[in-house]
Design a protein that fits this description.
Elements (H helix, E strand, L loop, with lengths): L2 H23 L1 E10 L7 E5 L4 E7 L6 E8 L5 E8 L14 E5 L2 E5 L3 E2 L3 E4 L8 E4 L2 E4 H4 L4 E10 H9 L7
Antiparallel strand pairs: 1-2, 1-12, 3-4, 3-10, 4-5, 5-7, 5-8, 6-7, 9-12, 10-11
């Protein structure tokens, strides 16, 4: 092999390695994982951008009325509840002093502008009928039909640009 070609190949390898290294170091967004507390494979893996919402929707077990909890994840992977929306003011629901603002939107009572940190949290998934469902980018995943009565942990984590590119090309099997 001639020297110029060898140097060109070596330069290409070094440049590609440097590119991979930089992509590994640069932020690539976030990933929300919903994993059974007893461990095992994730039930749901959602790629997110910082501040992008996801919603947890379910039927309240006492009031038998729908509830929507809108959450976001910040750039560090911390989860916040941003808004709660429901049809009836009932058991275990309602305003917390100093958190958000209570308004009416059509038939719904809404606590908006909450931005209350929850961090990683554990949810015991309800039975079918409670229908704990995650809404994300127009897709719905009914956790109650997949893992009723299981305790699951919601956790957010930052990911590298390299990982994000990999997941765009090869989505996680738990990503809808």
């Amino acid at each position: 092999m001639k020297k110029p070609l060898r140097f060109a190949l070596w330069g290409a390898v070094v440049a590609f390695s440097l590119l991979l290294w930089v992509a590994w170091l640069l932020p690539g967004g976030l990933e929300l994982r919903i994993i059974p507390v007893d461990k095992g494979d994730p039930l749901l893996v959602l790629p997110l951008d910082a501040g992008e919402p996801f919603t947890l929707h379910y039927m309240h077990s006492v009031e038998n009325a729908p509830i929507w909890e809108i959450h976001s994840v910040d750039s560090e992977g911390r989860i916040y509840i941003e808004e709660e929306r429901y049809l009836k003011f009932g058991a275990g629901m309602g305003r917390m002093p100093g958190v958000g603002r209570m308004v009416r939107r059509g038939p719904h009572e809404v606590i908006e502008n909450m931005h209350m940190p929850t961090g990683d949290f554990v949810l015991r998934i309800g039975s079918p009928g409670v229908d704990h469902t995650v809404l994300w980018r127009g897709k719905e995943t009914n956790l109650s039909s997949v893992a009723p009565h299981e305790a699951v942990q919601f956790s957010g984590q930052p990911v590298s640009l390299l990982y994000r590119i990999f997941r765009v090309l090869f989505p996680h099997r738990a990503t809808p």
